[in-house]
Design a protein that fits this description.
The chain has a single domain, classed as 3-Layer(aba) Sandwich (D-Maltodextrin-Binding Protein, domain 2). The protein is globular. The chain is an alpha/beta fold. The protein has a 7-stranded mixed sheet with strand order 2-1-3-5-4-6-7, with helices on both faces.
């Protein structure tokens, strides 16, 4: 009997030691969205203001849909950096601003939402690329992106007026006419 009690204590001590040796996993969540921005235009204060207005209007559209405050952080990066870090989860989405999406971003497994300004501003076409790992995020960003590209302040900064047509993977989502 004494041997059984000692054996039970030994097993309990070994299990406790094994559990203590296990690495701890900490899960951190945030109310923010991280977006990499790749812009083919020349770096100017107006371009930076447009990036910040995109973050502000996307955050407002997401906040409205989520029922709470959602912040959006944008960071200007190179195309290779954006593609790699979207795949690793550093960024939740990539905003490419330019006429044609580069091959490295087209090869990213995900969904692309596009908004094309009128013909005089085709070099400022917006392409929001969201990885395929989270369909709920894709759905949420599709709706928020449509809201963002219809925001009058954002349109004013992006195009100076005119219209902006939004599409997701070839299917038309919304056409926004500026009055």
């Amino acid at each position: 009997m004494n041997l059984t009690v000692r054996s039970s204590f030994l097993v309990a001590a070994l299990c406790a030691g094994a559990l203590a040796a296990e690495p701890e996993v900490r899960v951190a969540a945030s109310r923010g969205l991280s977006v990499a921005v790749v812009d083919t235009g020349k770096a100017t204060p107006a371009r930076e203001a447009m990036h910040q207005m995109f973050a502000t209007t996307l955050g407002a559209a997401l906040s409205q849909r989520c029922g709470g405050t959602v912040g959006v952080r944008v960071k200007d990066v190179g195309v290779d950096h954006a593609a790699f870090n979207l795949g690793t989860g550093v960024y939740d989405a990539v905003l490419f601003i330019g006429r044609d999406v580069p091959d490295v971003l087209r090869r990213v497994d995900g969904m692309t939402f596009s908004a094309a300004p009128d013909s005089s501003h085709r070099d400022r076409t917006l392409h929001l690329i969201v990885g395929s790992g989270d369909t709920a995020l894709q759905t949420l960003l599709a709706a928020a992106f449509t809201g963002t590209v219809s925001d009058q302040k954002f349109l004013e900064i992006l195009t100076g007026g005119g219209k902006l047509a939004a599409a997701a993977t070839g299917a038309k989502v919304a056409v926004v006419d500026r009055p």
